Amino acid sequence: MHIPYFDAHCDTLTAVFENGGGLFENQYMVDFKRLSAYAPAAQMFAVWNGNYEAKAALLKRYCKQNSGLVELCRSVDEIERANAAGKIAALLSVEGAGQLGCDVETLRQARERDGIIMLNLCWNSDNALCGAAMDSGSGLTEQGMEFVRECQRLGVAVDMSHASERTFWDTMELAKKPVIASHSNSAALCSTFPRNLTDAQFCALVSCGGGAGINLCPDFISDGSADMDGILRHIERFLALGGESAVFIGADFDGIDATPRGIAGAQDMGKLYEALLRRNYPEALVRGIFYDNLLNILGRTQ
After folding, report:
1. Among candidates 213, 222, 233, 286, which has minimal Cα distance to 259?
2. Residue ranges of the alpha helices (H) in 155-208?
3. Domains of the chain, start order
4. Which residues contact residue 17 at a Cβ distance below 8 angstroms, ignoring those fewer than 6 apart?
């Protein structure tokens, strides 16, 4: 059985840049050797914690040097072409617009030069654009409104993970294209972590043609220990809210210190695919969660 895989968020690029190792094979949670077990395969690499240009250059350089295995993609058309050729599609996102100086012109340059395809307005602290879920909880600023409009004009998906709930609703009121939360779970099942989504937030993402990525951080899954059943509960909560075409994977590998029991990294994600099949979900729906939904959502943002 060929298992597809499209993950909306990992921090492996930062782990390799800051701590050493390679992108083909490493001691972290994601590498291209493990991703090559999936078909088709696509991975969003987030730039986090500064050094944006150097980290983007690292990914671009690797893809150029290993063009037979992986292709750096900047659009859904390019993802589909790369996957059809048997290559892994690598994509670039920015986790926190502060890395671009919260500047619209720098955003345009990053889109044109590096092909960024997704962007978090903030990380865990407020910035010039908006309030963060882990900080004041304030909403979009005037500068933030301009930034959202330009992201959507450029075809860069606006990512609400890390943003405050007020920022979320301000953005939803403004947005003309789908909005996503790349690595956020259900607050109804785990409310102790402020970055999870309320039912109303998830339904709003569904209504705008966007969606949410299931985060494998144990603190996002359960107030106690996390396991496969815990992951499945979050997926099923979103499915029950009409999310059949809106739920995808946003594992947050290498951005989390621990993983649920049974999943140590990208190599184990087939276990989740098979667990969903064992619950008698149609394979088309499971394939949607693992690949098609995110691809289609990104297509709508462009």
Report:
1. 222
2. 165-174, 199-207
3. 5-301 (3.20.20.140)
4. 51, 54, 55, 58
Local structure of 23: helix, strand or coil: coil
How far is it, in rounded angstroms, from Cα 231 to Cα 135?
27
Reported as a single tens digit per residue, the pLDDT across 232-268 is: 999 999 999 999 999 999 999 999 999 999 999 999 9
pLDDT at 274: 98
Give residues with Cβ within 8 angstroms of 111, minimum separation 6. 154, 155, 156
Q: Long-range pairs for 133-139 at CB < 8 Å and ≥24 separation?
A: 133/162, 133/163, 133/164, 133/165, 133/194, 133/195, 134/162, 134/194, 134/195, 135/164, 136/164, 137/164, 137/165, 137/166, 138/164, 138/166, 138/167, 139/164, 139/166, 139/167, 139/169, 139/170
